[in-house]
Structure formats: C-alpha cells, structure tokens
C-alpha cells in the first residue's frame, strides 16, 4: 500500500472519530475523577504508534516535538485544574511548593523520578547541551556524565596521580590526563545543572507572585494554554535575568572550555594511535592545510600582481606606439589582454 | 477567588483540540513537499572557491539606480533569509525600488577552509566581488549593504577600501560588542577561543545553533512547537514556519581562523570601539569611513541590541550619517510584513539620493 493510499483512505475521518470518541469518554471519566492528562497521553501515544510507521523521519521529528510539548502543556495544567493528577486549583500554592522542592532536589544532584517528570519543560536547555555534546563526540553525551560520584572522585584523583613507569609511562600519563579532564568536565556540568535549578526555583517564586497578584485583582487563568504561555514567559524572563550575570557567563564558559579540553586530549590520543599505524594524523593534516592556504594566498596575490604588471606593460606599449607613430614598427607583443585596471575574473 | 478556572471539561476539550490539529496537521506536513527558499530569479556571475556572487534579475519596466548594491551577509546562517519567500524578500523589494542587487553567498566551508582568515575574506573574497561589480557596472565606486556580521565586514572593508565604496548601509550590525545587554558577547568573552579552534578546526554550526537557541531556550525549543500546532491547519502558514525552521538550523560551519579572529578581536577586545582591529596587517579604523552611512537596527533585537548598533554614531569619519530604527526583532527586520513595507523602500530612497 502506498503512502498516498494510506492517508487518503478515510484515515483522517477515522482519526477525527477517534478523538471525538475520546472527548466523550474523557467527559464521562472526568466526572468520575480519572486522571485526564494520563488518559490523554495514553490515547495520544496509541494514536502515534498506529500512525508513525507511515510517517517519514523528518516529519516524525516535528510531530514528536509537538507531541512532547503538548504533554508538557497538559501536565502543567493538569496539576492546577483539579483533575486527578494534582492537588487541584484550591491548593495551587502547594503545587508550586512541590515544584520548588523538585528544583531543589535536582540542584542537590538527585534529579530523578517525580522531580524529573515535573520539570520536563525545564530540561530543554540541558537537552540542547547534551545534544551538542553528542554531535561533537563519538560517544553519547551521557557517557561523559556517568563518572564516579563526589566521594569516589577523591579516590580516583589519588589513583590518577600514581606516576607511570617504564615503556608505558607516556601512555599512562595521557590516560591520566584524560581522566582528570573528564572529572573537570563533570564538575563543570554539575555547576551548570545546579545553576539551572536555581533559575527554576526563582521562576517558581516569580510565578507564585504573579498568581497572587491575579488572585488579588480577581483575574483568572481559563485555559491550559494560557497557563503554559504564562509559565514560558515567566521562565524566560527569569532565565534572561540570570544568564546576563557574570556568574552564569563563567559557568557557561567553564562548561564549554572543559568539554573542549576533553576533546583536545582525545584528539592527541587518537593521533598517537594513528601515528602508530603509520597513518596521517590530525595535526599533520592541519599543518598541511595551513601551508596550503599560505600558498593559495600567495598565488592569488601573485596573479593579481602579474595582471597589474601586464596592464602597465600594455599601457607603456600603447604610449610608445603613440609617440613613435608610424616611424617605428611596433614591438612584437605577447598575447596579453587589454586590461586597463586589475579586476578579477575567476581566481582559483 | 482562585486564580485558576481550568475546568476538567475545558481541559479535555483543549486536549482533543490539540490532538485534532495534530492529526490534520500531519496530513499537511506530509503534503508540504520540498521547502523552497530563495525565490527571486538570479544569475551566478562570479565564483571563487565556495563563494558565489549572484546578480538578481531586475524588473524590466524600472529605471535602475546607476550604482549597483552589493549585499554582504554574515558567515553565520545562510543568506537566503534576504529572499526567503515571495512576500518576505528584502531583495525583491530592493529590486522593486530600482536597485541593481548583487549578493555574496559564502557557501559551506569545510575542513580544507579552516585556515581562511578575515584577511582572506575581506581583502580576498569581498574585494574580488566588489571589483567584479565595479568592472561589470563601469562604476568606480559601488554601494554596499552589510547585514549583521556582514555589516561588521562591510565596515572593515570600507575602512580599508574607501575608494571603492560610494555609500554604506549597515543592518542589525554590532559596533560596540560589549554593551551591558549583549548576552551573546558576555558568553563569548568567557570562552577560550584558542582552545575551541585548536581543538575543532572549523567551528561546527551545531555550536552556533546551541548558542543562539540558548538565548531564549523555552520559547525557541519548546513553546515554538506548541505555536506550530496552531498553524498546522493553514498550509501557507505551515510552509512559512518550515522555511524559517530550515533557515534557523541551516548553519554552515565557521572557518576556524576567521572565527578565532572575529571572536577575539570583536567580541573579546571590542576592536571597533577600541580601534584595535588589524586585518591583513592594516589597521581598521571607523574614522577612515568617509562615505555616507545609513545604520539600520531593530529596537527589540536580542542578538544585536540596538545600543550595540547605535554606538556607530560619531565613530566614523563621515559627515553624512543617518539611522533608521525598526520596531521589531533581529529576524523580524528581514521577514515581517511591516519591515517589507518600510525597510527596503527607505534604503532605496536613501541610496537613490546619494547615487546620482
């Protein structure tokens, strides 16, 4: 069956019916105190399981991003709407306290389980970083994050300071250096995560103030979307304030620098292995690239200079001819173009 | 009174509505086809390495401005932003206002280009393009429009080759890289740029993507996709969204040496303000710029804060300096409907008065 047939065969009508039925069912179960958000997520996941095999990869990426954000949107609203997933609208302050505690937990390095579930939205900046690390590495990003815990790190540092001996001395020293740099990277990443938990906590406090203001002015939030947009705006506002600080710039810089130091050391070690196999190393290729560019620069400069000289020569020939007129036979000339000014054509 | 009035029935309605839009949107996404960008007919008139110089086709019924206009775009992202679709095209609107438009497309540098320096870019590529346009048009001096980092390039180029530039327009161009509201600059200043370039060679576009997305992570990596659900049912709006999405993530790698110089000289040393930039062994001073200058900036620009651009006032050697402020953001200044109606005609009008 072709894709086209698949989508044309009343499929859209069927899925329309699916969601209409779901809505009806959710109305009934909502009254019975069922967790709407979970029911919707399950229905959404079932629908996607049925549909996604026929969806091309690029489209799937978009769809999954929209679905993930949809889940965040409704999870957030569910906590305040009075469905079975949260304490309900009357206890909104308690819900916010719970969120604040979750940020504190993550800041303390225990970001698992319920806390992570609540803070899915807040993982976005961290996920962007992990994605970047993965693209720059042969290994998945979390490989760099699974080093020993703080207590064990001290032992590891002691172990790493044991000097190597004999033929293996250099190799051991390289490995020790890499391990030390990995530890440093992990520390930088921990600082980065902690900073985000602080920003998260401040966002919750800001949100609490906003909601208290609304309570005072008797304004209400009437939809999940309205609440989500307010939450995004609040988080973004606090984030912008915090990342403007020198403290954050330092944390951000140390994270990038620590990752680069790891990558550089990995490069050195890869080069050593390549050299052992009599293959060109990265550093040799870099040297060649630099020399090649120097040569090309020089070639281009010389080409332009030759053209300039040709133009001058041509000018002199013409001048000479006008002075001598018919009295003297023109000098034999090479096949020179009649450029008056030096302008590029195609420079390679 | 409670600040929440999200009833379960209303919530379930929103959920089913979200799902319905996704379902309908899937159909539209699958039918969206190839995402085309760069809509105005053009001709490649000069090539060098990975660079291509394009000349855009002018409307035949218009008397063109005698002095051609060369657009110098940033190395970051792709220049088709200036001509992204028919109703959002600075290029098209400049042509409609009588400009003879050329544009430099830098292409995608690869590992073999990692030793390209700012000298290669400015005294090499840009200068060769300028010479081509001068030769082809028969004009001794041409007009230049520099955009964002391309604006910095055009300032440096004009400082070094003032005899070839008749009028200079800069758009969302930073001059003071260290204004207090410049987040990007604050971040770049703590990066060990030598370590970065020595390690990676070329700087991957992924790093730039991460940096730009980190400026507004919740809007740009989360909320944007919720907003996308709202437009899924409108095929045209969906296609516009997909075009922008393509442009945002279409980030060429940056030639390592040029990146090193740019980050250190401009972001870290604030070289245009401190008069400390040297390119190809020649000092770059804004005081060398004596031609008329139009400085266009966006009032809500989160990448290049307006004060970073406004700093140009009084630093150049020109006696004919003008500013044009646009009430929008860094991207809106290229693509918003309001920008299309105001920016290109204003630029063309300003150039027209100084090109005869």
Order of helices and strands of chain A: HHHHHHHHHHHHH
Oligomer: heterodimer
Average residue-wise pLDDT of chain A:
78
Residue-averaged pLDDT of chain B: 94
Could you estimate the helical fraction of the residues of chain B in percent? 40-55%
Number of domains as seen in the coordinates of chain A: 3
CATH overall fold name of chain B: Rossmann fold
Protein traits:
heterodimer; A: 348 residues; mainly alpha; 3 domains; B: 356 residues; alpha/beta; Rossmann fold; 8-stranded mixed β-sheet; two-stranded antiparallel sheet; 14 helices; globular
What is the strand and helix layout of this fold?
The complex is a heterodimer of chains A (348) and B (356).
Chain A: H1 3-8, H2 11-31, H3 36-51, H4 57-81, H5 92-107, H6 113-118, H7 124-135, H8 141-145, H9 150-160, H10 169-217, H11 224-243, H12 246-276, H13 282-324
Chain B: H1 8-30, E1 42-48, E2 51-56, E3 69-72, E4 83-85, E5 88-89, H2 90-96, E6 101-105, H3 118-137, E7 142-147, H4 149-160, E8 165-171, H5 183-188, H6 193-200, H7 205-213, H8 217-231, H9 235-249, H10 256-268, H11 271-274, E9 278-279, E10 282-283, E11 293-298, H12 306-310, E12 321-326, H13 332-335, H14 337-352
Parallel strand pairs in B: 3-6, 3-7, 7-8, 8-11, 11-12
Antiparallel strand pairs in B: 1-2, 2-6, 4-5, 9-10
Explain what this protein looks like in three dimensions:
The complex is a heterodimer of chains A (348) and B (356). Chain A has helices at 3-8, 11-31, 36-51, 57-81, 92-107, 113-118, 124-135, 141-145, 150-160, 169-217, 224-243, 246-276, 282-324. With 348 residues, chain A is an all-alpha fold. Chain A is extended, with a radius of gyration of 33 Å. In chain A, helix 3 (36-51) packs antiparallel against helix 4. Chain A folds into three domains: 1-86, no CATH class; 87-279, no CATH class; 280-314. By secondary structure, chain B is an alpha/beta fold. Chain B has one domain (42-204, 253-352): Alpha/Beta hydrolase fold, catalytic domain (Rossmann fold, 3-Layer(aba) Sandwich), CATH 3.40.50. Chain B has 14 helices and twelve strands. Chain B has helices at residues 8-30, 90-96, 118-137, 149-160, 183-188, 193-200, 205-213, 217-231, 235-249, 256-268, 271-274, 306-310, 332-335, 337-352, and strands at 42-48, 51-56, 69-72, 83-85, 88-89, 101-105, 142-147, 165-171, 278-279, 282-283, 293-298, 321-326. Chain B has an eight-stranded mixed β-sheet with strand order 1-2-6-3-7-8-11-12, with helices on both faces. In chain B, strand 9 and strand 10 form a beta hairpin. Chain B is globular. Classes of the chains: A mainly alpha (348), B alpha/beta (356). The interface between A and B is large, with 103 and 77 residues.
């Amino acid at each position: 069956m072709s894709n086209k047939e698949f989508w044309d065969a009343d499929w859209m009508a069927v899925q329309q019916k699916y969601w209409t039925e779901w809505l009806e069912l959710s109305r009934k179960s909502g009254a019975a105190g069922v967790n709407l958000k979970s029911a919707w997520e399950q229905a959404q996941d079932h629908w996607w399981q049925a549909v996604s095999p026929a969806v091309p990869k690029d489209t799937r990426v978009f769809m999954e991003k929209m679905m993930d954000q949809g889940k965040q949107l409704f999870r957030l609203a569910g906590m305040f709407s009075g469905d079975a997933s949260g304490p309900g609208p009357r206890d909104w302050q308690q819900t916010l306290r719970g969120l604040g505690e979750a940020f504190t937990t993550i800041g303390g390095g225990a970001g698992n389980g319920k806390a992570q579930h609540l803070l899915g939205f807040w993982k976005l900046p961290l996920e962007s970083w992990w994605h970047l690390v993965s693209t720059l590495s042969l290994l998945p990003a979390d490989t760099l994050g699974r080093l020993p815990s703080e207590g064990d790190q001290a032992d590891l540092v002691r172990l790493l300071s044991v000097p190597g001996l004999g033929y293996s001395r250099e190799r051991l020293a390289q490995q020790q250096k890499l391990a030390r740099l990995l530890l440093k990277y992990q520390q930088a990443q921990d600082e980065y995560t902690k900073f985000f938990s602080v920003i998260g906590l401040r966002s919750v406090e800001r949100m609490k103030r906003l909601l208290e203001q609304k309570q005072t002015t008797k304004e209400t939030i009437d939809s999940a979307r309205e609440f989500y947009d307010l939450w995004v705006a609040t988080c973004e506002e606090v984030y912008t304030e915090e990342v403007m600080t020198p403290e954050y710039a330092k944390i951000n810089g140390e994270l990038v620098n620590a990752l680069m130091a790891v990558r550089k050391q990995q490069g050195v070690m890869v080069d050593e292995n390549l050299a052992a196999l009599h293959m060109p190393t990265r550093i040799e290729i870099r040297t060649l690239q630099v020399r090649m560019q120097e040569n090309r620069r020089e070639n281009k400069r010389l080409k332009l200079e030759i053209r300039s000289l040709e133009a001058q020569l041509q000018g002199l020939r013409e001048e000479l001819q006008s002075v001598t007129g018919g009295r003297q036979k023109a000098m034999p000339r090479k096949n020179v173009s009649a450029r008056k000014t030096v302008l590029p054509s195609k420079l390679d | 009174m409670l600040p929440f009035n999200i009833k379960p029935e209303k919530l379930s309605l929103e959920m089913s509505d979200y799902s319905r839009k996704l379902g309908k949107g899937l159909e539209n996404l699958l039918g969206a086809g190839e995402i085309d960008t760069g809509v105005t007919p053009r001709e490649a008139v000069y090539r060098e390495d990975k660079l291509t110089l394009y000349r855009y086709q002018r409307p035949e019924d218009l008397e063109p401005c005698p002095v051609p206009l060369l657009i110098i775009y940033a190395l970051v992202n792709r220049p088709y932003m200036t001509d992204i679709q028919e109703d959002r095209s600075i290029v098209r609107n400049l042509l409609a206002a009588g400009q003879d438009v050329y544009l430099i497309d830098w292409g995608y540098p690869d590992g073999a280009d990692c030793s390209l320096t700012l000298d290669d870019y400015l005294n090499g590529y840009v200068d060769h393009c300028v010479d081509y346009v001068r030769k082809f048009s028969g004009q001794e001096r041409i007009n230049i429009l520099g955009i964002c980092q391309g604006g910095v390039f055009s300032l440096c180029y004009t400082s070094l080759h003032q005899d070839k530039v008749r009028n200079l327009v800069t758009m969302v161009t930073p001059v003071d890289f260290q204004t207090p509201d410049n987040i990007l600059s604050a971040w770049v200043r703590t990066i060990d740029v030598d370590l970065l370039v020595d390690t990676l060679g070329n700087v991957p576009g992924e790093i730039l993507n991460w940096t730009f997305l980190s400026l507004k992570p919740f809007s740009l990596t989360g909320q944007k996709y919720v907003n996308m659900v709202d437009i899924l049912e409108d095929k045209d709006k969906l296609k516009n969204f997909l075009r922008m999405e393509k442009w945002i993530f279409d980030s060429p790698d940056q030639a390592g040496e040029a990146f090193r110089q740019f980050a250190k000289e401009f972001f870290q040393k604030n070289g245009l303000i401190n008069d400390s930039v040297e390119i190809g062994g020649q000092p770059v001073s804004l005081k060398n710029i004596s031609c008329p200058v139009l400085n266009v900036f966006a009032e809500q620009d989160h990448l290049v804060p307006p004060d970073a651009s406004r700093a140009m006032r009084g630093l150049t050697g020109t006696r004919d300096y003008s500013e044009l402020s646009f009430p929008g953001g860094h991207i809106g200044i290229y693509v918003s409907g309001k920008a299309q109606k105001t920016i290109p005609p204003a630029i063309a009008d300003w150039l027209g008065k100084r090109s005869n």
